[in-house]
Design a protein that fits this description.
Layout (H helix, E strand, L loop, with lengths): L19 H6 L4 E5 L2 E4 L4 E4 L2 H4 L8 H13 L11 H13 L4 E7 L2 H18 L7 E5 L8 H6 L3 H4 L10 E4 L23 H9 L4 E6 L15 H12 L2 E5 L13 H5 L5 E4 L11 E6 H7 L19 H14 L2 H18 L8 E7 L2 E6 L8 H12 L2 E2 L1 E3 L2 E4 L7 H18 L1
Length: 440
């Protein structure tokens, strides 16, 4: 941790999702990273408890990715995305489509999860318009869902703190399902056995607006940013059934769960439910270079391929769509992420994490522990009248204990790198236990 007297000027940088005044009084600065650890300016090592921000499952300083980036910079550092292409973007799209559930065949590249979500919403609207169903303009999201910080993503998302400042400009015509935590189930290992009926709220929304007016439903298979909210058994299947019955597109936001976090390439495969579109980002490049995108069913792509051959089918895209450097990082990351041994390691670590994190159930102030895949959350009792403060103290104490935690509200989220050892995962939980006790 740098002292305020350091010659590093922290004032000009406006940090995102951060209490800037508090941070700048006691800056917490990391200067390097390797494997599953960060190193702070004072030399202290911190175990990376959330794989960066859910985006570095292979750990840090991955040699294969670093070498690929160095080669790509000298080979082709940038290429326009409009009316011209480069080989690695096509190869990456092919590999991602091959990993996706059957029937999802085409990939549209963006630069982040936020952009991926807004792209998916636009694709859904345009798809219905191409099919002569232009009245389908409404979206259905979910309370406590997080779909990025674009106006589209905030509108379908259900994070009150993200929405309240910008509510006058939210998209019109958006409804929200109840979150899957509704019902009071606590200390569940894996998927809750009850709660599938929460999906039936979609029937009520459809009846209210008529299916001819609803374009798409968007949900995270597991709500990560809200604190690892795991869907009840059968919940996602029920959503799929309802959407299919009424011709509504189903979008899975897999920005967090994509590329192995649940022990399968995508959460859709773990739950046995195939959506119409999948958004992805984060782990696709192991967090080294920003990249995101949307995977769509062939029928959706084909619906756009109408009109004259020289006509632009989708007036949407980004300067950095399919950027050569990002594509090179993605190909190198997938070389490791697609290996059967990588997914098997995640499944083995899932049991280690589950057993370790549920040992916290009797700690004072712990309201809930939940987990699935290589992800878990510990929900803490808030300080009276000061939500978030208790978890903030746990975060600060965690640094003293040698772990970099991620807190959201009064919930601590955990998603260690796939390369972690069994002992590192257990030690992470013991460090969290000490931090919880010290924070009071």
């Amino acid at each position: 941790m740098l002292e305020p007297s350091s010659d590093l000027n922290v004032e000009p940088y406006w940090l995102p999702f951060t209490p800037n005044r508090y941070f700048k009084r006691q800056p917490k600065i990391v200067v390097r990273a390797e494997g599953a650890y960060y190193e702070m300016a004072d030399g202290k090592r911190l175990f990376d408890c959330l794989s960066g921000l859910w985006c570095c499952p292979l750990g840090h300083a991955h040699r294969g990715i670093a070498d690929a980036l160095a080669r790509q910079v000298l080979e082709l550092d940038y290429a326009p995305a409009f009316n011209i292409g480069h080989p690695k973007a096509f190869r990456l799209a092919e590999r991602i489509a091959a990993m996706a559930p059957s029937g999802l065949t085409h990939v549209f590249f963006a630069n982040s999860g936020s952009e991926a979500v807004d792209s998916a919403l636009k694709i859904a609207l345009a798809y219905h318009r191409y099919r002569g169903e232009a009245t389908r303009t409404r979206f259905v999201g979910r309370e406590r869902g997080y779909h990025g910080v674009g106006f589209g993503g905030m509108s379908v998302g259900g994070m009150p703190a993200n929405r309240k400042m910008f509510s006058p400009l939210m998209l019109p015509g958006v409804d929200h399902l109840s979150d899957t935590r509704r019902g009071g189930r606590s200390f569940v290992r894996g998927q809750p056995q009850t709660g599938v009926e929460l999906a039936d709220e979609l029937e009520r929304i459809v009846a209210l607006h008529d299916p001819s007016n609803i374009a798409a439903v968007i949900v995270e298979p597991v709500a990560g940013s809200a604190g690892v909210l795991v869907p009840p058994v059968g919940y996602l299947n029920r959503l799929r059934e309802i959407c299919t019955r009424y011709g509504i597109l189903l979008i899975f936001d897999e920005v967090i769960t994509g590329f192995g976090r649940l022990g399968t390439h995508f959460a859709a495969q773990r739950f046995g439910v195939t959506p119409d579109l999948i958004t992805f980002a984060k782990a696709v490049t192991n967090g080294v270079v920003p990249m995101g995108g949307v995977i769509v069913r062939r029928e959706i792509y084909d619906a756009f391929m109408t009109g004259g051959e020289r006509a632009i089918e989708l007036f949407h895209g980004y300067t950095y769509s399919g950027h050569p450097i990002a594509a090179a990082a993605g190909l190198a990351a997938l070389d490791a992420l697609v290996q059967p041994a990588t997914l098997e390691r995640v499944r083995l670590l899932e049991q280690v994490l589950e057993n370790a994190v549920h040992s916290l159930v009797r700690e004072g102030g712990v309201l809930d522990v939940r987990n699935i895949g290589l992800a878990a959350a510990v929900e803490l009792e808030p300080d009276p009248g000061q939500p978030g403060l208790r978890a903030a103290r746990v975060f600060d104490r965690g640094i003293a204990e040698g772990v970099l935690l991620r807190v959201t509200g009064d919930t601590v989220a955990l998603a260690p790198p796939f390369i972690s050892t069994d002992e590192e995962v257990r030690s992470m939980i013991e460090a969290l236990r000490r931090a919880i006790r010290a924070a009071g």
